[in-house]
Design a protein that fits this description.
The protein has a single domain, classed as TPP-binding domain (Rossmann fold, 3-Layer(aba) Sandwich). About 30% of the residues lie in helices and about 15% in strands. The protein is built from five helices and seven strands; from the N terminus they run αβααββαββββα.
Length: about 180
């Protein structure tokens, strides 16, 4: 006859000393492909030149990769309105005249949902639409207007650029914008 066996692991060891046996890993992305990076920068310059109502939508990835201050400098320099996803609340100044609020799909404040939905260019910075940040996937952004900068790629309606590192893209786009848009 077999009897049940009860195994218990110690659960009250939070104060016990421990040793780190492995070195802290060095997390870094490989550099962007320079040709693709140049193509993506030209893509953004071209899209911003043609846009009548561009909007920047910032998510937590921008903070995670340390590009918020660069993004805000670009936003201020070219007076680009911006909103944040709920997961990025507190990463950007909310007292700026360019700040639109928190984009939460159909649950966004009055007017924000419509404004982003009607924009001809919505540039996402690391945006992830999940059930809890988009009011159950209720976002309505024109497919031809959507461009999302992710950690190592840029995705738009008809194009995807792989091997483009977010910090290199954000850091490298300002000068070409000055050449084309001025300021």
């Amino acid at each position: 006859m077999k009897l049940p066996v009860y195994a218990q692991l110690p659960s009250d060891i939070v104060d016990a000393p421990s040793e780190r046996n492995t070195p802290t890993p060095n997390y870094c992305f490989p550099s962007s492909d320079k040709t693709i990076l140049s193509n993506v920068i030209n893509f953004f310059v071209h899209r911003l030149e043609r846009a009548h109502s561009p909007v920047i939508l910032i998510d937590a990835l921008a903070d995670r990769y340390g590009v918020v201050s660069d993004i805000l400098r670009i936003i201020e320099k070219w007076s680009l309105p911006y909103a944040v996803m709920p997961t990025a609340k507190g990463t950007c100044p909310e007292d700026s005249s360019l700040y639109l609020g928190v984009y939460f799909g159909q649950k966004s404040r009055n007017g924000l949902f419509e404004l982003i939905g009607q924009s001809d260019l919505v540039i996402g910075i690391g945006v992830r639409f999940v059930d809890s940040t988009s009011a159950w996937f209720s976002q309505r952004i024109r497919a031809d207007a959507w461009v999302n900068i992710e950690a190592t790629q840029v995705v738009s309606f008809k194009q995807s650029f792989e091997n483009v590192e977010i910090t290199e893209l954000v850091g490298g786009i300002e000068e070409p914008l000055i050449d084309v848009l001025g300021r």
